[in-house]
Design goal:
Number of domains: 3
Number of strands: 12
Order of helices and strands: EEHEEEHEHHHHHHEHEEHEHEEHHHH
CATH superfamily of the largest domain: tRNA modification GTPase MnmE domain 2
Oligomer: single chain
Radius of gyration: 29 Å
CATH class of the largest domain: Mainly Alpha
Largest sheet: 6 strands, mixed
Length: 449
């Protein structure tokens, strides 16, 4: 195993920058960096040492901590060097480490080595990435639960029952000339139902878990001058989009990330939909249609001070094909039209972008189609699509095996599905995950982690 090195802190200037090394040559590279071949640090103790250039000139004074294998994050000899956070100093120190034999780490390679050295399983490793990427307290809480091993522990009873029943069925194939007694067959079937229900319960949490982790995309659409940009600014909390009384002011899409009810929301303002009067406006309308097609929910804004137009009705007709909410804007005006007969089939909220009236109701209406997640009472949620896919496959294999068992099929056929289900569950925690899939998973990590 070679020795890897990477900068573990984010790019740019900072007070402190951290460089990590992991591998068998970590200590010898440290000794060369400080020009002291006899230096033998006590593990987990911090030392102040000078990092020297090849010429012996001081590059920087740094705090150094050595972690001896196997008592480190990666399970290997590991070194952490805390320099001043100048990008120039960090780059020079990184270059020196590479000249002394270290290789630049791939994304997530430190965590991958921790996984391979049994310091954590694959779900815990993925939780490290999710914790770094968490945008809300609730998402961070779920990542911490997974990092603590809760998902692995939840799956363990199901895997144990599967192994027990595989052994019973394979023993029947080897040592029993007759078919299994009906009592035992019924008992195995009952246990398979129990395991299937356990997995199905986890599968059922994915809709909420995905929203909690990845958030939702909301696109504001409507004809020109209905107040889309004003509603957008109200939701964002700043005057992000230019607002004028001139129709067609917004020519391009504008996207901001916000938090609504603890859920990350990518909010996009768009150009008004109408017959374009020039090439620039035509491009803006095209981008509006693309953003709408890519969104999880359409927020259709109509002018509440006027009757619905043909353009409004056309936009509403298209929005009805997807998740949507209709915001009747300008409810603060005295001549606001309150009739909703034409909108009876839509989820409607009256708002005023000027006064903020109805903003809380609009926020609730946006989140309602995706369910609510109480981070304190939700329990463990499946947030990763890879986990969800493998759980669904395991559930399908178990259901197929149970149907075969109940129909009197041979144990040889029944046990195939149980082996498949066990393999799928093993892929979640990394016990049976192929190396190419591991590489793909860890490529989503940041370098230095």
């Amino acid at each position: 195993m070679d020795t890897i090195v990477a900068i573990a802190t984010s790019s740019g200037r900072s007070a402190i920058g951290l460089i990590r090394l992991s591998g068998p040559d970590s200590l010898s590279i440290l000794q060369a960096l400080i020009h002291d071949p006899l230096f033998t640090p006590e593990p987990r103790r911090v030392y102040l040492k000078g990092i020297l250039r090849e010429s012996g000139e001081l590059l920087d004074e740094a705090l150094i901590c050595f972690f001896e294998s196997p008592h480190s994050f990666s399970g290997e000899d590991m070194l952490e060097i805390s320099c001043h956070g100048s990008p120039l100093i960090l780059r020079r120190a990184l270059d020196l480490a590479q000249q002394l034999g270290a290789r630049l780490a791939h994304p997530g390679e430190f965590t991958l080595r921790a996984c391979k050295n049994s310091k954590m399983n694959l779900t815990q490793a993925e939780a490290v990435r999710d914790l770094i990427d968490a945008q809300t307290d609730a998402a961070a809480s779920q990542a911490l639960r997974q990092l603590s091993g809760e998902l692995s522990a939840t799956l363990q009873p199901a895997k144990h029952k599967l192994i027990q029943n595989i052994v019973r069925l394979e023993s029947a194939l080897e040592f029993v000339e007759d078919d299994l007694p009906q009592v035992e067959t019924k008992q195995i079937s009952g246990e398979l139902v129990e395991v299937t229900n356990m997995i199905a319960a986890l599968v059922g949490t994915f809709a909420s878990g995905r929203v909690l982790r990845d958030g939702i995309k909301v696109t504001l659409v409507g004809r020109p001058n209905v107040g889309k940009s004003s509603v957008f600014n109200r939701l964002v909390g700043i005057d992000r989009a230019i607002v004028t009384e001139i129709p067609g002011t917004t020519r391009d899409t504008i996207t901001e990330s916000i938090i609504l009810g603890g859920i990350p929301v990518s909010l996009t303002d768009t150009a008004g939909i109408r017959e374009a009067e020039g090439r620039i406006e035509e491009l803006g309308v095209e981008r509006t249609h693309r953003a709408a097609a890519d969104s999880d929910l359409l927020l259709v804004v109509v002018d509440g001070s006027k009757e619905l137009t043909t353009e409004d009705l056309g936009i509403l007709e298209e929005a009805a094909k997807a998740k949507h909410v209709v915001a009747i804007n300008k409810s603060d005006l005295p001549n606001s039209v309150r009739s909703e007969e034409s909108l009876s089939e839509f989820s409607v909220v009256h708002v005023s972008a000027v006064t903020g009236e109805g903003l809380d109701e609009l926020t609730a209406a946006i989140l309602e189609p995706f369910g609510t997640v109480d981070s304190e009472t939700a329990g463990l949620l499946i947030t990763d699509s890879r986990h969800y896919d493998l759980l669904r496959r395991a559930q399908s294999s178990l259901e197929s095996s149970r149907e075969l068992l109940d129909s009197g099929a041979s144990e040889e056929l029944v046990v195939v599905g149980l082996h498949n289900a066990l393999r799928f569950l093993g892929e979640i925690t990394g016990e049976t995950t192929p190396d190419d899939i591991l590489g793909e998973i860890f490529s989503t990590f940041c370098i230095g982690k």
